[in-house]
Design brief:
elongated; ANTAR domain-containing protein; 54% helix; Sig_transdc_resp-reg_antiterm; ANTAR; CheY-like_superfamily; Arc Repressor Mutant, subunit A; RNA binding; alpha/beta
Length: 198
């Protein structure tokens, strides 16, 4: 996906589960804004979605809204909303949409919906990557504590000195403290023997 979310010209939108009139209206709007469209079938999204930058789907289509969450490809998603029953809205929210448009689709609103969806999706991807990185670091912290205890016992160091030594050793090997700690704990005898000579 392009980094500049405000430039929609050249984007390709996949239309999923849209009726003929809605699809035609969207195609005309996209053409006017310099975007391309492809009509996609819900059952073959995995293969066909590689050729589009975002998806627009009709939330009223029974082929899509039969279960809790549809298996969407990792792309920005815009829901077309017609039926506003609580159960339908709950299903739309469960799809993790990045934008929405009201039905019937008219000749305005697409630029706003696409721009906001691209921005929201990009922001969500960054947040998810950040959370995943923090979770990995959190899991590795127990190894840092174990490595610190090993150094405290082996070199008779206090807690702060052991952590300082751990950081220095990690930097010398151009690794994070977490990476070095995992290696030290998993091969403690070999690693501590090598460190004793330092």
């Amino acid at each position: 996906m392009r980094k500049d979310t405000w430039r929609v010209r050249g984007l390709s939108l996949g239309l999923v589960g849209c009726d003929e009139q809605t699809a035609q209206n969207l195609e005309q709007q996209c053409l006017r804004l310099g975007m391309k469209t492809r009509r996609l079938v819900a059952s073959s999204l995995d293969n066909d979605s590689a050729q589009v930058d975002a998806l627009i789907f009709d939330s009223d289509n029974p082929d899509l809204n039969g279960g809790d969450a549809f298996p969407w490809p990792v792309l920005p998603r815009i829901a077309l909303l017609g039926n506003e029953t609580p159960s339908r809205l709950q299903w739309v929210i469960a799809q993790g949409i990045d934008g929405h448009m009201r039905k019937p689709v008219r000749y305005d609103g697409l630029l706003t919906a696409v721009s906001l969806a691209l921005h929201n999706w990009q922001h969500r991807q960054l947040l998810e990557a950040s959370v995943q990185k923090m979770e990995e670091r959190l899991k590795a912290r127990r190894f840092v504590f174990s490595a610190q205890l090993l150094l405290m016992r082996h070199f008779t160091l206090d807690e702060n000195s052991a952590y300082s030594r751990l950081r220095t050793l990690a930097m010398e090997q151009q690794k994070t403290v977490e990476q070095f700690s995992i290696e030290l704990v998993s091969q403690s005898e070999i690693q501590l023997g090598a460190l004793s000579g330092k």
